[in-house]
Queue: 3 jobs
Job 1
Amino acid sequence: MKQKRRISILGSTGSIGVNTLEVIASHPDRFEVIALAAGANLERLLEQARRFRPLWVAVREREDARKLSQTLPAGVQVAFGTEGLKAIASHPKADFVVSAIVGASGLEPTLAALQAKKNVAIANKESLVMAGSLLTATAKKQGVSLLPIDSEHSAIFQLLEGQDRSALDKVILTASGGPFFRKTKGELNEVSLEEALHHPRWQMGRKITIDSATLTNKALEVIEGRWLFDLRPSQIEVVIHPQSIVHSLVAFRDGSMLAQMAVADMKIPIAYALSYPERISVKIPPLNLVEMGALEFYAPDVETFPILSLAYRALESKSSAAVVLNAANEVAVQAFLDRQIPFLEIYTLVREVFEAHRPVEAQSIEEMLSWDAWASEEAHRMLEVKNYKVDLGRSFRKAAHGSTSSP
Ligand code: MG
């Protein structure tokens, strides 16, 4: 009998966390849940704790931790805040961490997990965008794996298995195009929050769904891919593939191109990361080649969806540029979700913050977090100048990241 993989999940109540627990539940002989961390969805966390009996759970707020401690099953400990997250990420009983918190707040616990020599399956693309160099170097130094959960990067990871890396020409990331594929700028002016939240292919959280509608998700994935696979920016291409069947491709110097295909269900890349290097069964209907219809591929419209070119500029620039791009986008998306700005203002705000920044080589996590805080402040300031009413998560971000002064 093989030893079970002992897993901690950061972000257990979100879409990736829930799917991860489903995969784990269908293979109880292989996996054991050690700890779960969530934000504020106490009801779902409690349900998960009753079902999977972890040793620890963590939530964001002290008050929520207190409430939970009265209802949790006996033997389940509860922690809170950034320290709680880090404790879950580095729990001595766990050997594997799923990093599935959305946004910049996933960075510190992900780094803590790698430093504690845990293998990490990463869905939190923002932390790779902010600190891909640091995270991949830490994994290497500690002798642990950083395995992709993002479907495109899982595809590339699978396609490169056993290949001669020196023969790789380029990777091609596919994008569904989101709900606004083929819309003109004029039409984008008019789109509502509800339309932006209605993704044609994937069921996901709100932040990533808006990022898909703006194509920022793909911009972040270009940066993510650069770090996960140690590629030159010129080796990464993006094509629009509305059917979301081909999850990415790799091209070799002999002219061969390989594609990974599957139905659009996150349980597939999650299961691959959890069971790597083996493959386990996943309970979803298999892809039916005869019924799936034609597969189409188009060049992305970078005039209408301009963030993709900012991602390449960030990669050619110094490391703080990507941190700033990501932080400005987080503020812009939140403002759009709060109905404070129209859709196209997301681009304007991100571009203006990006242009206002003079990039530097940020090396430590403290420097990266201080540029993150700077860009967040700058984005809020610009929103105020433009007379958008903002109270937003400013104080939260201050609290989470300490100093807000320009580094
Ligand atoms: Mg993806």
Job 2
Amino acid sequence: MSETATLEINGKKYEFPLVKGTENEIAIDISTLRSVTSGITTLDNGFKNTSSCESAITFLDGEKGILRYRGYAIEELAEKSDFLEVAYLLIFGELPTKEQNEKFHRDIQKKSLVDEDVKKILDGFPKTAHPMGVLSALTSALTAFNPRSVNVDSEEDMYWAIVKILAKLPVLAAWAYRKEEGLPLEYGDNSLGYVENFLKMMFDLPNEVYKSNPVIVKALDKLLILHADHEQNCSTSTVRIAGSSHAGLFASISAGISALWGRLHGGANQAVIEMLEEIKEDGGGYQKYIEKAKDKNDPFRLMGFGHRVYKNFDPRANIIKVAAEEVLADLGIDDPVLDIARGLAEVALNDEYFKSRNLYPNVDFYSGIIYRAIGIPVPMFTVMFAMGRLPGWIAQWREMRLRKEPIGRPRQVYIGATERSFIEEDKR
Ligand code: CMC
């Protein structure tokens, strides 16, 4: 194979080197394109063909349905690991030794207190505020309480910033929920594991003894692992690009939370349940919704279907589908919404429109069903996704800073008015 790509513009040829990844992915390195062509750029709306960086964190092959964190298959990690261990793996590159793992857990527990003044900020939000907005704002506010920016040349400094955000974000997430519910804020119990403690912080009532359910803890742990990273998706790219200006870790994560919020990204898990509920209210017949999704004049999309990268199947959806069935069986829940989901998936998977466009159920199609079964309220679904994605955002931010990447600053093709003279107000 030739090691270069040739581009011909107006009869003139330019050579560009090919870059090959460890999984044999090939990219054309066009970093000299503008200078050698005197200003020509590439246009790639939605970055469908653009690799924004070289990364050693997550590999995914959308055609084959492969997802690996640092080389380990998602299926194996979901079965054998736990969320904090996966977080360590993603961020630092290797599975932790027993000592490293225990220290990581202990350090996170030690840093889980949040400045009491954060409660005053939380108090300023109306109860109706969406918890994603609250989480993004409070995460950004953490910067004010930790004003010294991280010295990225110090492993020690970097480690503690990472520990702090992993420790405090679940507290903020639980508080966002408790505020909405009018419940007293609490810190949980450091003798519990990360996920178990989060559930306690969410659901502990002042007049009851909290008892955790191992089925729920395991299901949530698995869901968080499945969401932990997904290479250069919308929110992760946001985190990397915000951080590329040397904005701090917490500020960059806050930007990522905002990007995750939308219905086409993390917000899809909320949108899926709302769609399934709507179908249920409408009598449960899903064919009408299939037709709506296919109608080009109707903006409706089948939420939880399709993926920018997976064009065969989403490996996370396969794991989560089985997990959803297990959780519902374990908890003895008979959820009519799951029947609608099963039926909808089957009809869509056999429909030519969906088949020809490679539209398969994605991770969010089933995650909401589990969240619902374990008592997470619908507006908190995307917050759960944010908690899961946090290690990925951290890992990507750290990688970007350690590789000393330049500030992210795309070009554009200007299509506006050419130069014209100012028109006085009375002549407009
Ligand atoms: N329902 C109906 N039609 C769809 C859907 C859908 N969910 N998704 C894509 N299409 C059609 C789309 O109309 C287009 O048709 P045509 O070629 O005739 O114009 C074709 O499929 C390609 O779609 P696209 O919008 O060009 O694909 P994309 O890669 O830009 O978008 C997506 C990917 C995930 C934004 C999109 O599939 C979608 O909106 N899905 C529903 C929202 C969703 O479930 N999002 C969660 C993604 S997984 C979790 C995460 O990573 O955040």
Job 3
Amino acid sequence: MTTIRPMVAGNWKMNGTTAALREPRLLAGILRGVKLKCDVLICPPATLIRRAKSVMRGSKVKVGGQDCHAAISGAHTGDISADMLKDAGATAVIVGHSERRTNHKETSAQVAAKAQAAHKSGITAIICIGETLDERKAGKTLAVLSEQIKASIPSGCTAANTVVAYEPVWAIGTGLTPTVAEIAEAHAHIRAELSTAMPGEGPSTRILYGGSVKPSNAAELMSVANVNGALVGGASLKAVDFIGIIKAYL
Ligand code: PEP
């Protein structure tokens, strides 16, 4: 059986100015000397990446971005490239978050191009997939996941440069989570699909669960088969809550 080192990643979304840097500072302090059994990543707004990295210098906590453009540079006002994120200190970038897919009408083809851009820049792509509530109610969850995997995961993905995050859209920021059985079914399905999407790499690729993960449910959610960590939104903003989730791997 392949041993997979889990990852707990925090997505700050559009939250945080300079004052919020006390949280990663606190996080790094709490984790100093702790033998972690998982990788820890925080993805603050791009404006804070360099400073977050600096306040956590010497810590095991890594910093990532929340989105990138598919191009390295060019006439794309307001966008940010994977090269720029890397230059600021990011080691990873989230692509295809449901908020980007919905609010910015991003397609899976665009998500795949962004993941490829991340790889070209030498950073890990955290590729998000997940069904809406209507799709779940219509019994289409597994079909939606298959379709998103096929179209969002570009060639060249490896277990080292790619993480897949399963985030049911209806569980994000709502306090709702699927049942353990539903998560197990979705993750087993994703694992099976990865054998085609990422030949030879699927069994060792991390599949994170995301959607209302908090300290009180982390241990249960993280113990589900094929769940190799968490992508955390709201509960990643406060170091004490984020640590409460990381504890599932201590
Ligand atoms: C997310 O935005 O990726 C997320 C999982 O949010 P929350 O943990 O707040 O549901």
